[in-house]
Design goal:
Largest sheet: 6 strands, mixed
CATH class of the largest domain: Alpha Beta
Number of helices: 11
Number of domains: 2
Distance between the termini: 65 Å
CATH superfamily of the largest domain: PurM-like C-terminal domain
CATH architecture of the largest domain: Alpha-Beta Complex
Length: 344
């Protein structure tokens, strides 16, 4: 061990940090949109609120991380998709209030800074921002030896959007008789991975690069499938239809998230046989011997977002979503009753 008393000898390589920032700047610039002021590398990211398009603009913010899905990235050495996930989980939340995503910031805490790894992570973040239509205007990369093991990191994001005050979606206008449309997920997305890893690696002893016939691809390919980003489709839907509630179906599945989009005194009645469940879910259920109710409490089960609107607009809404590449299904309706989800 070196007796040299320098920051680098203590485990923090400032030069590697400079190189990472240089590479990040290139990816971030590909996401810039009107409103961005300045460039990556200043002390704060600057964005001009588009007051010319909003009479009473309300800012909507959200923050989230990728969670233990990152463990799959560590196992495989594939770091280019988790950045999409972190954008998706932040942006999809603020979409539920009807917001237009404006800008995004990321935080990477890493044990030993490798500019190649950081660049691949941020390339994914930039791709997610392009899909969402928001700008990556800043962030932080912190080299933290002793806090994270070498080869491991944490990834967190922060999204800010804007919505006209009178068009804010808070579920208060939902009513009995409304239709619930489920929008397809991209598979597991980024929730429930602690259980997924326990089933796949501890219980079943599978290898991450193992080909799974029931899934038609390797386990790594399935588990690293990026989370869907619904920003552009929902923007079009909000223009075309009177959407009264939106729920991001992430951790906790339909039972936890759908009631958050309803007015007090309303219940969501959901028909479990009304949408096709992707193969990964029944495969996991069988592999782990997981109780069916636990599956629905933990995973999205094929529904990534849910929108609530009048029955007469359901067909039009499905057409709009299909035009933007998203399959959707009427999965239930709203009734009077205690807050929650009732299965039909």
């Amino acid at each position: 061990m070196s007796d040299e008393m320098t920051y680098r000898a203590a485990g923090v390589d400032i030069e590697a940090g400079y190189e990472a920032v240089r590479r990040i700047r290139t990816h971030a610039r590909t996401t810039f949109r009107p409103g961005v002021l300045g460039d990556i590398g200043t002390f704060g990211g600057l964005f001009a609120v588009p007051v010319d398009r909003y009479r009473e603009p309300v800012l909507v913010s959200g923050t989230d991380g990728v969670g233990t899905k990152l463990k799959i990235a560590f196992m495989t050495g594939r770091h280019d998709t988790v950045g999409i996930d972190v954008v998706a989980y932040c942006v999809n939340d603020i979409l539920c209030q009807g917001a237009e995503p404006l800008f995004f910031l990321d935080y990477i805490g890493i044990g030993k800074l490798d500019p190649d790894v950081v660049e691949r992570i941020v390339a994914g973040v930039a791709e997610g921002c392009r899909q969402a239509g928001c700008a990556l205007i800043g962030g932080e990369t912190a080299e933290l030896p002793g806090l994270y093991a070498e080869g491991e990191y944490d990834l967190v994001g922060f999204a800010v959007g804007v919505v006209e005050r009178e068009r804010l979606i808070d579920g208060k206008r939902t009513r009995a008789g409304d239709i619930i449309l489920g929008i397809a997920s991209t598979g597991l997305q980024s929730s429930g991975y602690s259980l997924v890893r326990k089933v796949c690696f501890e219980k079943a002893g599978l290898k991450v690069e193992e080909y799974i016939p029931e899934l038609g691809r390797t386990l790594a390919e399935e588990l690293l499938q990026p989370t869907g980003i619904y920003a552009k489709a929902l923007s079009a839907l909000l223009q075309a239809c009177d959407v009264r509630g939106i729920a991001n179906i992430s951790g906790g599945g339909l039972p936890e998230n759908l009631p958050r989009a309803l007015a007090p005194g309303l219940t969501a009645v959901v028909r479990r046989d009304s949408w096709p469940v992707p193969p990964v879910f029944p495969w996991l259920e069988r592999l782990g011997g997981i109780d069916r109710e636990e599956m629905y409490r933990t995973f999205n089960m094929g529904v990534g977002m849910a929108v609530i609107l009048g029955e007469d607009e359901a067909d039009k809404a499905r057409e709009v979503l299909a035009q933007h590449g998203w399959e959707s299904w009427p999965i239930g309706h709203v009734v009077q009753g205690e807050e929650g989800v009732r299965w039909a």
